[in-house]
Specification:
about 90 residues; mainly alpha
């Protein structure tokens, strides 16, 4: 069926909505990870016992997936050099 003006079929997927394959893949991945948690913890413990450096590297490589990345933001203010033009009108005492 060709697109006709006023037909809602041309809007596509709603904003923020993931496709079905992505949703199903996430569910499968979470199921796999839940089954592997004990093994992951054991492996991290072995790393910690054998090499602090490797343990810290492994932890730091996983952090971006579980903690938001810090972003430095610079804030600047553009303040006027003198008084605003309306200032005298407001402060005049009569």
């Amino acid at each position: 069926m060709p697109f006709t003006k006023g037909n809602d079929l041309g809007k596509g997927r709603p904003k923020g909505k993931t496709n079905k394959v992505t949703e199903e893949a996430k569910v499968v991945f979470l199921q796999v990870m839940e089954g592997e948690m004990d093994k992951i913890q054991d492996s991290l413990q072995v790393l910690r016992e054998n090499s602090d450096e490797k343990y810290l590297k492994a932890l730091s490589s996983m952090m971006p997936y579980f903690m938001p990345k810090m972003v430095e933001t610079e804030v600047t203010f553009n303040e006027p050099v003198g008084q605003p033009s309306w200032f005298d009108e407001v402060t005049d005492e009569e």
